[in-house]
Amino acid sequence: MKANKAHDVTRYVFQAGENILIDANVWIFLLPPAAQPAPRFAGSYSAALKNLIAAGARPVVESLILSEYVNRYLRLEYEAFWSRHYRTFKKFRKSGDFSSLATAAIAEAREILRIAAANDTPFSQTDIAAILAETEAGTLDFNDGVLVETCRLRGWKLLTNDGDMSRGGIEVLTSYPPLLYACP
User: Residue 146: which pLDDT band, with cuts at 50, 70 and 90?
Assistant: First the structure.
């Protein structure tokens, strides 16, 4: 797989009409659960989203990302506040305590859908055999592979804080130093 090209999002100039797929890890920084302290990257991604919208670029979200966001949001809250009361996440999910947390997570998911255009993966066009082979070999996270393929096939850039997004032949926008160093 070809190396990705990384751009420092703090210096990137967004273009009108440009499609930017925003990864779940960035959404967690932008719309964090109470259990998530503000990480040092949050400010740079918040500024990037503001600049992206001001330039007329198009923030995009797709179902894998929204799923990862909601699941991570709920898990962070469970691990921080509820794991000592409920032995498993599944038991917590079936409890009355889950309701208000789920309401908050879904409100944030709706905010993401208000900000970003919903667009799904072109699954039938992806090189799924290659993604499965790399996942089996342990060299690729399956969802990451699908997201990179989506960006490659659609000509989108990926806004991410995931250090594993160094391969796939796409352009990534990030403020995460290891990813900036891993890509030419």
Answer: very high
The answer to whether residue 55 sits within a structural domain is: yes
CATH of the domain at 123: 3.40.50.1010
Answer whether residue 36 shows pLDDT above 90. Answer: no
Q: Is 176 exposed, middle or buried (0-12, 13-18, 19+ CB in 10 A)?
A: buried
Parent domain of 58: 5-66+114-182
DSSP characters over 2-55: PBPEEEETTT----TT-EEEEPHHHHHHHS--TTS---TTHHHHHHHHHHHHHH
Q: Is the pLDDT of residue 150 over 80?
A: yes
Q: Check whether 184 has a pLDDT greater than 80.
A: no
Structure tokens at 101: 């947390």
Geometric angle at alpha carbon 46, from 6 and 118, rounded to 5°: 80
pLDDT tens-digit map of 70-92:
999 999 999 999 999 999 999 99
How many domains does the structure of the chain reveal? 1
* Residue 76 belongs to some domain of the structure: no
